[in-house]
Each structure stands twice: as structure tokens, then as C-alpha cells.
Design goal:
This protein has eleven helices and four strands. By secondary structure, the protein is mainly alpha-helical. The strands form two sheets. Strands 1-2 form a two-stranded antiparallel sheet. The protein has a two-stranded antiparallel ribbon with strand order 3-4. Helix 7 (217-235) runs antiparallel to helix 10 (287-297). The longest helix has 76 residues, at 14-89.
């Protein structure tokens, strides 16, 4: 928008000024719409958190009620079980009477198990964690396996990053914290990933063999189309229908991301960053923004390494400021 305003200040042609003023107004409306959408999203999140807190409070009260009723029922059942046991073990009762008494005992045991199951489920909700999106997550126990009954063998397949790294710690969620906390936890996650890498590789099994011949030809062709379209959009913006171009770019990026040159090729992560940068562009991107993405897409013709990924990550973060 700043670029458009500078052009407006330099233009004396009344027709061109009207066009630029209309474009500036469109940019403002788009920004206002985006801001309004973000406010709506935040409001919905706050409503979800409020609902989750109410659900958690109701679950805590319900748990207390279930525990009290369970104790009451247990006292009555203890007296019933004592009398039924005398019938089952008494020689003076008929076989039919003893069988009926045993059925009653079994039924009481089932009812006890049902009450305990309901108590465990309510306890998982009452002791749960509210996520950043307002979801109420049930409490977990035993290495990340939900406290509610899990499928057989689930514990052997589930592990936290801390467990894989050999550290008894989970990184806290920095939601609503200062930027310093985000950076600290990001470094901690990076350290834990490095420590956990041998365990992760061991669980993943042997890597798939790299395709012969390096970068697939289909990926090279898609990368060339990307570079050409972005260059054309940067140099001749009036020729390009950007709403259509976005779809073409996204399709070619997806084609590149699905065609790695080998196990060490980080093209999928690189393409994810490019697509995130594409989503950050305004309705009519600036030439500097398109130029940055165009230069970045030239790397897609070769395998992507960690250095290229780090460089693009820094560039995408500065993309909005280039408008």
C-alpha cells in the first residue's frame, strides 16, 4: 500500500490517480476484512475456552456426585453380596436358588465396573487441559496414552518427544506468552529433536531408497513454470490475473513437494514455506515480493538442504514488509 501511495503522490494524470485511489481503497478494504476475520477467530476461540471451562467445572461436580453415589451403592451391595454368598455356599438351598444367587452376584459386579468406568471417564474430563484453540483435552497418563481405555498395544506405539530424547519433560505451550518464551521453547524443541533423532530413526525403520537419476523431470518442469510465472507477474503485473495465477502456482508447488530427489532432500518442508509465503501475499503483490519468491523457486530444480531451508525461512518472515 505504501508503494501505491508513493505512486499516487507522483502521478498527475487524473485517470491514473483515480485508478490508484481505487486500488488503495481496495487494499484498505482487504486489510480491514482480514483484521475483522482475525478478530472473529479470536472471539470464537475465547468462546470455546469459556465453554471448555464450564464443561470442566461441570465434570468436576459430576465426578464428586458419582463418587458419593458409588460409596452409597457399595455399602448396600456389600450387604447384598454377603446374603447372596450364604445362599451360594449354603447346602440347604436348591441348585436353582444357588444359580439365581450367583447370577445376582455377577450382575452386581458388572454394575460396579460400569460405575468405575464412568468415574474414570468423568475424571479424565475434569482433570483435562484446555488447548490454545479452546478444546478440552482429556488428561493423559503413562507416556502420553489417554487415561480412558486405549486399544491394545497403544502404549508401545505412543511416545512423547521428551521420552524419545531421554528427558522427563514436556515443552510448555507458549500461547499468549512473550516472544522470548517462544524463542526459548523453540530452541528447546530443536535440542530435543536432535537428541531424539536416533530413537525416531529407529522407530521409523530403514529409509526408502532414493529415486535414481536425481531430481525427477516432472519436478524440474514444474519449477521452471513457477519461475517463469512469478517473473512475468513481477515484471508485467497488469498482464497477470493474480486470482488465477495463485491456483497455478499452488498446483506446481504441490507437484514439486511430492517429488523428492532422495531421503535427504528437504523439498517438502521447503515447498511448505513457499506456500505459506504465497498465502501471505496481498491481493495484488508487490514486485519485490514476487521477486523474492521467484528467486526461491529456482532452488526447486535441485535437492534442498538445511541451509536453503533456513535461508527461505528467514526470507518468508520478512515477506509482508516488502510491500
Amino acid at each position: 500500500m505504501a508503494l501505491l501511495q508513493r505512486e499516487l503522490a507522483r502521478t498527475v494524470d487524473p485517470v491514473e490517480r483515480l485508478r490508484l485511489q481505487a486500488q488503495i481503497e481496495q487494499e484498505r478494504n482487504s486489510a480491514a476484512k482480514t483484521y475483522g476475520g482475525e478478530l472473529t477467530k479470536q472471539l470464537r476461540t475465547q468462546e470455546s475456552i469459556y465453554d471448555a471451562l464450564n464443561k470442566q467445572r461441570d465434570a468436576a461436580l459430576g465426578l464428586l456426585e458419582l463418587q458419593i453415589r458409588d460409596r452409597q451403592e457399595a455399602r448396600k451391595e456389600a450387604r447384598q453380596l454377603a446374603g447372596l454368598a450364604r445362599v451360594v455356599n449354603g447346602g440347604q438351598f436348591s441348585a436353582e436358588q444357588r444359580a439365581a444367587a450367583q447370577d445376582q452376584i455377577d450382575l452386581i459386579r458388572v454394575q460396579q465396573q460400569q460405575r468405575q468406568q464412568k468415574i474414570r471417564e468423568t475424571s479424565a474430563t475434569a482433570g483435562g487441559t484446555i488447548s490454545a484453540t479452546g478444546q478440552l483435552l482429556q488428561s493423559v497418563a503413562g507416556g502420553g496414552v489417554p487415561a480412558a481405555p486405549a486399544p491394545p498395544g497403544a502404549a508401545a506405539r505412543v511416545a512423547t518427544l521428551g521420552e524419545l530424547a531421554g528427558r522427563k519433560r514436556d515443552v510448555p505451550d507458549p500461547f499468549r506468552m512473550q516472544i522470548g518464551a517462544w524463542m526459548t521453547y523453540a530452541r528447546e524443541i530443536d535440542d530435543m529433536l536432535r537428541a531424539a533423532l536416533p530413537a525416531i530413526i529407529g522407530r521409523a525403520g530403514p529409509a526408502a531408497p532414493a529415486p535414481a537419476g536425481g531430481v525427477p523431470e516432472a519436478r524440474r518442469a514444474a519449477a521452471e513454470r513457477l519461475a517463469q510465472l512469478l517473473q512475468l507477474a513481477a515484471t508485467m503485473p497488469d498482464v497477470i490475473d493474480w486470482s488465477v495465477a495463485r491456483g497455478r502456482l499452488d498446483g506446481d508447488l504441490a507437484a514439486c513437494g511430492s517429488a523428492p530427489a532422495g531421503a535427504s532432500d528437504m523439498v517438502a518442508a521447503y515447498v511448505a514455506l513457499l506456500r505459506a509465503g504465497l498465502a501471505m501475499l496481498p491481493p495484488k503483490p508487490a514486485a519485490t515480493q514476487l521477486g523474492l519468491l521467484q528467486r526461491a523457486t529456482t532452488r526447486l530444480s535441485d535437492p534442498v538442504d538445511q541451509a536453503a531451508l533456513n535461508e527461505l525461512s528467514a526470507q518468508v518472515a520478512s515477506l509482508p514488509a516488502l510491500a
